[in-house]
Amino acid sequence: SKFSISIAAKSPQSVVIHFAVNCSNEGTPVKTVSLADFQINPESFAKDVLLAFSAEFVDTVEASQKVKPIG
Questions:
Q1: Distances (CA, A) of 31 to 5, 7, 20, 42
Q2: pLDDT digits (tens, 9 = 90+) for 5-26
Q3: Cβ atoms of 20 and 6 closer than 8 Å
Q4: Paired residues of 15 in beta bridges
């Protein structure tokens, strides 16, 4: 059963990250599990993911600014 869909792609100009989870199993073309199966509120889950991602992003930016270029 499929729970999430994710992809990361890098180009010379940017990086794209796509992440999605099923809120329900309704209308899915393959067998899936969803947030509803785990009794997880989709809005709370989304807020938690966004808070964690934004904290990780800030940490990454701060860490990258500590590194001095070589050469």
A1: 13, 20, 16, 19
A2: 999 999 999 999 898 999 999 9
A3: yes
A4: 10
Alpha carbon 59 to chain centroid, angstroms: 16
Beta-carbon contacts of residue 27 (< 8 Å; ≥ 6 apart): none
Phi-psi map region of 21: left, alpha, beta (phi>0 left; psi -120 to 50 alpha): beta
d(CA 11, CA 5): 20
Output the pTM of the full model.
Answer: 0.70
Q: Residue 3: left (phi > 0), alpha (psi -120 to 50), or beta?
A: alpha
